[in-house]
Design a protein that fits this description.
Structural class: alpha+beta
Distance between the termini: 56 Å
Helix content: 55-70%
Radius of gyration: 23 Å
Length: 294
């Protein structure tokens, strides 16, 4: 192992785990993020899924502190590698059982699990293994080899931008806009063309109907289909009533040709279907969702 890589690995891993751990443990969106992960299916409760995500955040913060404070100790690095392997196994399970779910890795991005999520987990494994072999404290390595350390840190600083969607708005989105400006829009421009499902989901999540119904939704997108000019998106949820909480399917219907560019304020039809009786709940059940106490 190249000394500069192994000796600076605890610093890199610590700086990588600290913000993601803090985001999970203290973030205001952790509960919402947990509701869109496969943890809800495994633990069968949104609150337990949120607690599990916050506990993971605490573990990441503890590991980050250990890596930064005791870089020449092998245990924090080995534990980081084990954590990375755990991430990889979790992602594989989630991808196989609920491919549309969010990974919950960074406590910010909520997109479905993709190659970059596995790449992040792989970097945690590699970084942990490297950190476990560190022979010199990272601050001594920086002092003794400033040029080599600076080059290594600059290279590793670029990795989060490549493997994480959190920073796409800073480099990938401008790059795509520039490409469209130079070569034109590669998508069909004919009126009435169906937009991708991801575009419909993005449009839904910006709508007032989604904001009003979100307290009931307990999953990521489970199913979708097109029917008579509408695209129907199905989520699972729980609806509180006099009996407690009943499991429901939450159905949203949007114009299948609409996107945020063509219809920023779309018409959205919302229905709640009782999963036990398969009956549609009355319209006043939806009205209750918009009251202040909900």
């Amino acid at each position: 192992m190249i000394p500069v890589v192994s000796d600076l690995a605890p610093l890199v891993c610590g700086l990588l785990l600290a913000p993601t751990g803090a985001g999970k443990l203290f973030g205001r969106r952790t509960a919402r993020l947990a509701a869109n992960t496969v943890l809800v299916r495994v633990l069968r409760d949104g609150r337990r899924a949120t607690l599990a995500l916050r506990t993971l955040g605490l573990a990441e913060l503890v590991l980050a502190a250990a890596l930064l404070a005791a870089p020449t100790t092998a245990v924090p690095g080995a534990a980081t590698a084990v954590l990375g392997l755990g991430f990889t196994g979790y992602l594989a399970y989630a991808k196989a059982t609920a491919p549309e779910s969010s990974c919950g890795c960074s406590a910010r991005a909520e997109g479905p699990i993709g190659v970059r999520a596995f790449a992040r987990a792989g970097l945690v494994v590699a970084g942990g293994l490297a950190a476990a072999t560190a022979g010199t404290a990272w601050w001594s390595e920086i002092t003794g080899r400033p040029v080599a350390s600076l080059i290594f840190l600059l290279v590793t600083a670029a990795l989060p931008a490549v493997v994480s969607s959190d920073l796409d708005r800073l480099w990938l989105v401008p790059l795509r806009k520039a490409r469209i400006g130079l070569f034109g829009n590669p998508l069909p421009s004919s009126a009435g063309a169906r937009v991708p499902v991801d575009a419909t989901v993005e449009l839904l999540e910006r709508s007032l109907a989604w904001q009003a119904t979100r307290p009931v939704v307990r999953s990521a997108l489970l199913d979708h289909w097109d029917e008579e000019g509408w695209r129907v998106l199905r989520y699972s949820g729980t609806y509180p009533d006099a009996r407690g909480s009943r499991p429901v399917s939450v159905l949203f219907a949007l114009d299948l040709t609409a996107s945020i560019d063509t219809a920023p304020s779309p018409a959205v039809r919302v229905s709640l279907v009782d999963e036990e009786s398969e009956k549609i709940l009355p319209a006043d059940a939806l009205a209750l969702l918009a009251t202040p106490e909900n």
